[in-house]
Amino acid sequence: MKLIIQATHPIAASHLDHIARLAQSRQREPISQCAFRLADALPHPEIAPYCLANHIDHGFVPHDHSLKNIGLVVMDMDSTLITIECIDEIADMHGLKPQVATITEAAMRGEIDFAESLRRRVALLEGLDEHALQRVYDERLQLSPGAEIMLEALKSHGIKTLLVSGGFVFFTDRLRTRLGLDYAHANTLEIADGKLTGRIKGTVFDAQGKADRLIKVRDELNLKPGQVIAMGDGANDLKMMAQAGISIAYHAKPVVCEQARYALNFVGLDGLVNLLAD
Q1: Domain count, the chain
Q2: pLDDT score for 64
Q3: Is residue 278 pLDDT above 90, yes or no?
Q4: Residue 130 needs a FRET pair 20 to 30 A away by CA distance; which of 76, 172, 257, 265 works?
């Protein structure tokens, strides 16, 4: 397999040499100052802890794991495509961010059922002016590092993109238009007389909903599971990640890193491109 190592900083020659020795790789190809490809690499139990201690992401990549073989990338929104949890920032406009963020964190760790956690959080938003949503989008929403590089690479390969979120259509629809994404799906906040009612319209779009949407789009595109990448950060992403041939944990909770094929703990979303470049 190929061993891809990458970091947010230039990788020191001493680190590169040590990892190459552990992997018994004699061929190294620079992708950039911050990323290298080691050919014919073998797993070694010391590689993962060494990389973690030195803030280096690593992945053993089979030769058939390549962007040229991918037809669809499915991504979570909050804390994956973007840096924030939108509902936490909406709550901040209502003076309730700590209360909502605590529930969000527990849900992402898998300690609370997602649908129930969302209903509890949204209920706390009752009475908030709907203009708070636009303020969050304008003032606080930022793309994760490397997002635009990743999306440009996906488009250049003709890969379709699906944004799924347990968050809200208000944000996914705007990101879909802004970034030229192919598909997006999320929850809809109920609004009456310009105020949030504290309720979700319709059925909650949860972990199973994400998995079902991936399967629906995958089948519409006549793709096999091995042609799909799914990436996310929280426990409610695990079901959709299980439906993809390649799963990527992005700055994720431990439960997600443990089950994903690859984990990007330090680098940005462009790390996906380094992992799976032709």
Answers
A1: 1
A2: 87
A3: no
A4: 76
